[in-house]
Amino acid sequence: MDALTIFSKISIMSIVSIFVLFIFSKMLGKRQIAELEFMDYIIGISIGSIAAEMATDFGDKPIWVYIYAMALYTLIDLMFMFISRTSPMLKHFFKGQPLTLIKNGKIDYKVLSKSKLDVNDLLALLRNKDFFDIRNVECAVLENNGDLSVLPVKDYNEENSYAFIPSYLIVDGRIVKSNLEKLNKNEEWLYNLVGIKEKCELKNILLTLYDTSTEQVTNYYKE
User: Fold this and answer.
1) Pairwise CA distance, residues 49 & 203, whole Å
2) Got the DSSP string for 154-195?
3) Which of 3, 97, 112, 140 could bridge to 102 as Cys pair (CB 3.0-4.6 Å)?
4) In angstroms, rounded to a whole number, what is the distance separating the alpha carbons of residues 32 and 162?
5) Distances (CA, A) of 23 to 67, 123, 223
6) Cα 140 to chain centroid, rounded
7) How far apart are CA 75 and CA 110, in angstroms?
8) Is the pLDDT confidence value at 35 over 60?
9) For 121, phi and psi rounded to 5 degrees?
10) What is the spatial distance between Cα 151 and Cα 104, in angstroms, rounded to a whole number?
11) Is residue 105 pLDDT above 50, yes or no?
């Protein structure tokens, strides 16, 4: 098989695979794009890998085999959509349920661990929502699609939200030495600040932030 034939076949099969993906995606609806949940992710990458294989396969496997496989995955996803609408219990089993990571201004460490996230992940998600100070967050819910919904505290002023970014001195039981050095402070000062005597006690602290403007410290514990 010469190069021209190979390029021609790849081009034709790529166009066909894109067209087939477009049809099946229209059947699944915009939910597949807008709200990518766990099952949607599995179905999406499976159909995508089949389409990619179809575009580059030079064997004797007929095209209908790939189209049937993609159609089957699409049918399975539609079946899960129907099940989710008729049975809330099965919906929670297949798709999971939202997790409240912060409630009443406090981090729920057990729920955070259940979500397979750590404190740094949570802080990054909050920053993506323009919350650089965790004290401005009353409630934060991790949705099924991985997005974070945030409810600010009652007196939160969005216009002044960037006026101050706190220094995180302890994150998940570990001292952030770079932030401590910026304050020209040592570990002994930090121990006195958070009320501990030995390094082993750090493991009980989930997060410590220090407000340089007021010299106040806020601790979140692994409760």
Assistant:
1) 43
2) TT--GGGTTS---EEEEETTEE-HHHHHHTT--HHHHHHHHT
3) 140
4) 35
5) 11, 39, 49
6) 13
7) 37
8) no
9) -65, -45
10) 10
11) yes
**H/E element, 69:** helix 63-86
Classify burial at 104, counting beta carbons within 10 Å of its beta carbon; exposed 0-12, middle 13-18, buried 19 or more.
exposed
How many residues can be counted in the chain? 223
Q: Which residues contact 170 (CB under 8 A, 6 or more apart)?
A: 176, 190, 194, 202, 205, 207, 208
Do residues 71 and 27 make contact, with C-beta atoms less than 8 angstroms apart? no
pLDDT band at 29 (very low <50, low <70, confident <90, very high): low
153 token code pair: 């505290």
Task: Kindly list the strands in the beta sheet with 99-103, ordered across the sheet, starting from the edge strand earlier in the chain.
Answer: 106-107, 99-103, 137-142, 148-152
CA–CA distance, 223 with 104 (Å, rounded to integer)? 14
Residue 216 one-letter amino acid: Q
Q: What is the C-alpha to C-alpha distance for residues 128 and 139, in angstroms, rounded to an integer?
A: 15
Stronger pLDDT, 98 or 140, i.e. the higher one: 140
**For 167-182, how does the pLDDT look when each residue is reduced to its tens digit (9 = 90+)?**
899 999 999 999 999 9
Pick from 149, 89, 142, 151: nearest CA to 116: 142
Interatomic CA distance for residues 106 and 33, integer angstroms: 32
DSSP string, 23-56: HHHHHH-THHHHS--HHHHHHHHHHHHHHHHHHH
Query: Among 45-54, 98-107, 144-153, which stretch is predicted with the lowest mean pLDDT?
Result: 45-54
